[in-house]
Design a protein that fits this description.
Residues 237-266 are annotated as: Disordered. This is Ribose transport system ATP-binding protein. By secondary structure, this protein is of the alpha/beta class. It folds into 2 domains: 2-233, P-loop containing nucleotide triphosphate hydrolases (Rossmann fold, 3-Layer(aba) Sandwich); 271-511, P-loop containing nucleotide triphosphate hydrolases (Rossmann fold, 3-Layer(aba) Sandwich). Helices cover 31% and strands 25% of the residues. It contains 15 helices and 22 strands. The chain has helices spanning 42-49, 72-77, 95-100, 110-123, 142-152, 169-184, 196-202, 225-233, 307-315, 363-366, 378-394, 411-424, 441-456, 468-474, 497-511, and strands at residues 2-13, 16-27, 31-35, 57-62, 65-66, 80-83, 157-161, 188-192, 205-210, 213-219, 237-239, 258-260, 271-280, 284-292, 296-301, 324-327, 330-331, 347-348, 429-433, 460-464, 477-482, 485-491. It binds adenosine-5'-triphosphate (ATP). Adenosine-5'-triphosphate binds at residues 13, 18, 36, 38-44, 398, 408-413.
Length: 512
């Protein structure tokens, strides 16, 4: 039986028509994937379904009754819940209070909430103390707390907006188990994601949103990730096939829509960074790291593996010890208080708080390195604005003007621009966390291009990521971290990207 029916939805922001005549349905017990490029309108559509945003026109029915929520609370009352992409939970709430906020149990004594919260947290496989404050938890677990909250409500339909983007493969498996459980209970799930291979494993049907319309609505069984990527962008996709471009690519049913991506430039033999016996007391036991000039080395591991701490030691965010640390032949210290000798590698994180960008500032100003008032020379100003326009074009940012505010861009477009801005001044050896989180398939290749340009100029990069596709595509070597050590190095060398991905998932699962 049909759970949600959507007919002729339209939505514009300012002059930009984001949704035009969107029609689809979700049946009871069905998990429906929603994909589209960055800025295609997926979150807008999810927000309309969840009552956060109102459509300009069109209509919806929920189990046959007219459904026109005036707010998220209104939607929750009739059983439609959402886990938002950039959820921010009040840091002063306990985990148990956060799980039950907005539900009939809210306001009950903590002791009572604790027991029930524990059950729900176990269901979403979140190992968190119900008495802990939300502010004490790392930000990436907020979507899991939200997922537990959705389970606490008597929800008939759940919108999961990019929840998997921050999760490790093992955590994605658990999220999928939750989605499966919701489906077996007859509830519906609208699953928004850019991580196509994983998404295809769980959804029954896929909707592709392109140019404001549902361009494809078909069973997931008839799609593979490459074909779905091509449907998403509306044409052939440039995807890496194997690391060695001179070897013929393996034939695949999706060859007609896959264009091999250009090969990455080979790193030089010169060592840019050498660290021996890196230790972070209690977290990292002894890690050796050699990074050649122009090399991209990936690090991945579960939350307790020590991978974040290794990165934190390299960037000076965590005090650490080593037997030797050498940057371009110069001895360095992993003690951040060692002033000029401290290593302190520059670091980028795709976290809205860490962009260091004012969301109320225009795109033009955000991408301008010079202080705006110092652009007194007209030629310089023209060149600067040309640079801004080029970047916006190259990265295919969906905007009507470079005077649009940064905060009004879609999540993916914000991330691309913030990364481009950061990479423009990145030199030498840098640490990038999750460089393609929340980005569509084309944007991922644009980011890879930014990285290729930087490495061709001698920049070396440490990529810290939960995403096996990103690691397989971007890195020359991938270290699987477990128990405070690098348990295994995977040389991506001349392997096909798909088999690198499989090895990473296998090794990471075995090490967890
Ligand atoms: N409140 C708003 N004001 C102005 N424009 C907006 C607003 N919300 C969304 N938009 C615009 O609507 C378009 C669709 O945004 P939306 O966030 O729905 O895209 P998306 O498909 O979810 O993208 P992503 O994958 O990058 O998250 C974007 O161009 C965005 O700039």
């Amino acid at each position: 039986m049909t759970l949600l029916q959507v007919e002729g939805l339209t939505k514009s922001f300012g002059g930009r028509r984001v949704l035009r005549d969107v029609c689809f349905s979700i049946a009871e017990g069905e998990i429906v994937g929603l994909v589209g490029t960055n800025g295609a309108g997926k979150s807008t559509l999810g927000d309309i379904v969840a009552g956060i945003t109102a459509a300009d026109s069109g209509m919806m029915t929920l189990q046959g009754s007219p459904y026109a929520p005036l707010s998220a609370q209104d939607a929750r009352h009739v059983g439609v819940g959402v886990v938002e992409q950039l959820v921010r939970i009040d840091p002063e709430l306990t985990v148990a209070e956060a799980v039950f906020r907005g539900t009939p149990q809210a306001g009950r004594p903590q002791a009572e909430l604790r027991r029930q919260a524990q059950v729900l947290l176990t269901e979403v496989s979140l190992d968190a103390d119900p008495d802990a404050l939300i502010g004490e938890l790392p930000h990436f677990v907020h979507p899991l707390v939200e997922t537990a909250r959705v389970l606490a409500e008597d929800t008939r339909l759940v919108v999961l907006d990019e929840v998997s983007a921050v999760l490790l493969p093992s955590e994605v498996t658990r999220l999928h188990a939750v989605a499966g459980r919701l489906s077996r209970q007859g509830r519906g799930v609208l699953y928004i994601s850019h991580r196509l291979p994983e998404m295809l494993e769980v959804v029954d049907r896929v909707l592709v949103l392109r140019e404001g319309r549902i361009a494809l609505d078909c069973p997931s069984a008839s799609l593979d990730p490459v074909r779905l990527a091509a449907e998403t962008v509306g044409g052939p996709v440039s995807l890496p096939v194997r690391r060695d471009p001179s070897a013929p690519p393996p034939s695949s049913p999706a060859d007609d829509v896959r264009v091999p991506a250009p090969a990455r430039p080979a790193p030089s033999d010169e060592v840019a960074l050498l660290v021996r016996n890196l230790r972070v007391p209690g977290r990292v036991e002894g890690v050796d790291l050699t990074l050649r000039q122009g090399e991209v080395v990936g690090l991945t591991g579960d939350r307790t593996s020590g991978v974040r701490e290794i990165a934190g030691a390299l960037t000076g965010e965590l005090p650490a010890l080593s037997d030797q640390a050498v940057l371009h032949g110069e001895p360095r210290s992993l003690d951040p208080s060692a002033d000029a000798a401290a290593l302190r590698l520059p670091v980028y994180r795709p976290d809205a708080d860490a962009y260091g960008v004012d969301p109320g500032e225009t795109i033009a100003r955000t991408l301008t390195q010079e202080a705006w008032g110092t652009l007194t020379d007209l030629r310089k100003e023209i060149a600067t604005l040309r640079g801004v326009i080029n970047t916006v074009h190259r990265l295919d940012v969906k905007t009507m003007s470079i005077r649009t505010t940064f905060g009004a861009l879609s999540g993916g477009d914000q991330h691309k621009l913030a990364l481009a801005r950061w990479m423009a001044s990145a030199r030498d050896v840098v640490v990038l966390h999750e460089p393609t989180r929340g980005l569509d398939v084309r944007a991922r290749q644009q980011v890879r291009q930014l990285l290729d340009e930087a490495t061709a100029h001698g920049t070396s990069v440490v990529v810290v990521s939960v995403d096996p596709d990103e690691l397989a595509d971007f890195c020359d070597r991938v270290g699987i971290v477990a128990g405070g050590r690098v348990a295994r190095w995977i040389d991506t060398g001349e392997l096909a990207v798909d088999s690198v991905r499989e090895r990473i998932v296998e090794a990471a699962t075995a090490a967890a």
